[in-house]
Amino acid sequence: MDVGNVGYGAGGGVLTAILTYIGFKQRLDRADADMSELKKAVVYKDTCGVCHAATLRACDVMDKKLDKILDKMK
Fold it and tell me: What confidence tens digit (pLDDT) does each residue in 23-44 have?
């Protein structure tokens, strides 16, 4: 069996399917490990409060701009 011609024929399809499965499984395992690390992360209340306030301010700015656009459309 020539390594350069592995992708040809039925055997190549099976080999490709196996390699695809292994690659996909590695990605899932890596994502699972990353998520388990995120669960261990500590977020302090003051940090969460600051981030939440900044998000609310950004949403208020977007709402005001959207209101201006809607007023011009009327």
Answer: 888 888 888 888 777 667 676 7
User: pLDDT band at residue 53, thresholds of 50, 70 and 90?
Assistant: very high
| Single-letter code of the amino acid located at 53 | A
The pTM score is 0.39
**Whether residue 63 is found in the same domain as residue 47:** yes
- DSSP string covering the chain, please? --GGGTTSHHHHHHHHHHHHHHHHHHHHHHHHHHHHHHHH----HHHHHHHHHHHHHHHHHHHHHHHHHHHHH-
| Full domain range(s) for residue 49 | 42-74
